[in-house]
Design brief:
This protein has a single domain, classed as NAD(P)-binding Rossmann-like Domain (Rossmann fold, 3-Layer(aba) Sandwich), CATH 3.40.50. It contains eight helices and seven strands. A seven-stranded parallel beta sheet has the order 3-2-1-4-5-6-7, sandwiched between helices. Helix 3 runs parallel beside helix 4. The longest helix is centred in the middle third of the chain and has 29 residues.
Length: 241
């Protein structure tokens, strides 16, 4: 039996990077996956990869800041796959690496909308189904998600807010069977990382496929009683070797 056999996982921002890696890993572990992203061509490519792995798949092109689009994604998941066991809030943008004084108003708003309001909308829309399955919510944070760091602006604020949202929900949902946890994936070889650290050699950091173990754990029955915790993905993997 594969570890996620018969489970259905929703993953936002699934067209590339960590979201795409999770779609492939969950599929290999036996889960059906429901994917959303703004990029249609990349999303369809990941959908095809998942289907080639033999997994059921729903893919919806939408923006997580669009309430109607998020609700349509949840409805398509239930119609196509029958249930929701896991929600991974992965969709995220970097914004600007400048001082607060220099931060553009529109970029600030958009970054907060995608990184914080998006997970809120996804959680609220999926929560009735997750209650039914006694499911798992995984919010993806960052190395700057538990403190403030100069020149990280709205991204840092949004990830700190997402960790607070995790803690609030963990308390509110305690006893419901739904668990909510946060993962800091650490430095990864992604487009966002390259934009944040343009001088860094990408070969010195992990690929997204190398940091997925903790997500399988949080999606599985092994984490049934784990709620309101913060995990560092790469430390989790080191501990499991």
């Amino acid at each position: 039996m594969k570890e996620l056999e018969d489970r259905v996982a929703m993953i936002s921002g699934a067209s590339k990077g960590l979201g795409a890696a999770l779609a492939r890993r969950f599929a290999r572990e036996g889960a059906a996956v429901s994917l959303c992203a703004r990029g249609g061509d990349d999303l369809r490519r990941i959908e095809a990869e998942v289907r080639e792995l033999g997994a059921g798949c729903v893919a919806v092109e939408t923006d997580v800041t669009d309430r109607a689009g998020v609700e349509r994604w949840v409805a398509a998941t239930l119609e196509g796959l029958g249930r929701v066991d896991v929600l991974v809030n992965n969709a995220s943008i970097l914004g600007q690496r400048v001082t607060i004084e220099a931060f553009d108003d529109d970029v600030w708003r958009r970054t907060i909308e995608v990184n914080l309001t998006g997970p809120f909308l996804c959680i609220r829309a999926a929560l009735p189904a997750l209650r039914g399955s006694r499911g798992s919510i995984v919010n993806i944070s960052s190395g700057v998600g538990d403190h403030g760091r100069p020149r990280w602006g709205a991204y840092c604020v949004s990830k700190n807010g997402l960790e607070a949202l995790t803690e609030i929900l963990a308390g509110e949902l305690d006893g419901s069977g739904v668990r909510v946890n946060t993962v800091d994936p650490g430095a990864m070889r992604t487009e966002m990382r390259a934009a944040a650290y343009p001088e860094e050699d990408p070969g010195t950091v992990a690929t997204p496929d190398e940091v997925t173990d903790v997500f399988v754990y949080l999606a599985s029955e092994r984490s049934r009683d784990v709620n309101g915790e913060r995990f560092r993905a790469q430390e989790f993997e080191v501990a499991r070797r």
